[in-house]
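Course assignment 3, question 2. Fill in each field.
Student: A.L.
Task: Predict the tertiary structure for the chain below.
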Amino acid sequence: MQVDAAKLQEIPKNTYLVVEKDYDGEDHVIEKKPGIGARIVADKLTNDIFSYAPKGMKGSKNSNFYEFLSLGLVPNLIGSGMLILVSNALNNIHTGKSSAAASMTGTKFAGGVILYAAGKWLGNKIINKGTQALTGIDLEMPYKKVVHELPEYPGDTNTTSVEFHRVFESSEFPRFDLLNKMGEQNNQRQQYYDKITKKMGYKTEPNASDQIAQDKIRDVIVKSTAAKSVSSYIWAALGCAIAAQEPFGTYMKYPIDPGIGKKIKDFPKETWRVLKESTKSLSKTTMGKVLMAGAAASSAFGILNTARGFKVKENKQKSCVDFNKEYMEN
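Answer field:
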């Protein structure tokens, strides 16, 4: 594929994993494809190591708050690994436990660290997907923000970088302009808002659907954020409780070590077996039942509360004048 030299020079210097064929040098919504979330996280982690950390350490004038927040991935990963290693080391040294008992405790602790993060992710994911099902609002819709930086040195011409955000990550400043731009590409500026008002219960497309939908979208963002802040930690606690069960201590244990090849081959099946047995074991305890019920209830209540008030009471089309009058009165 031939790439124009001038166009190539505009490609962000910190785009390591993906160079978009349709890169236009402007902020734009990223098409949702399988694995896009993982790709964005991988891109951020790569930038943390090769771009953001070096820039910050040398005092770059282009370092910003987005890069600072993104760098949190590194200490989280390193800290989790250190917790696992230190716990395993201490359980094997001067604990008075047998080697097998120490190994079982270390395995449970490692599982707890991993399932804590997995539980938080799952709690957020359930709220996001449930909200999208009831309201049509994709809270995870990603977009690429193009940043024009100052030259780092005399003659520096590569002054473009990118940041990955979510369209609805802020209730104060959601990127409605990108939704408008996306609609204009299909010659229908109100396309996204028409879809949302239809979910709200309007049988016909109302005038000024953007004015009607935008306030509802902000309301959903605020409610979902509160729901996720509660639900995700209950799911994280459930993950830790599952890892504390005895079946987790026997994870990937063989009477005779069969070698790394068999371990890799059996990894998915063994992981599922251990999770199933540990969950079953937890469900027999009072605390387990409370945690499971709490996780399910927090997600269900969070989704329903987020969608509360989203539907309109009267399925009738309102003119722009009528809507503005009603808005001012309220």
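Instructor remarks: Residues 5-9 have pLDDT under 50 and may be disordered. Strands lie at 28-29, 142-148, 160-166.
Grade: pending
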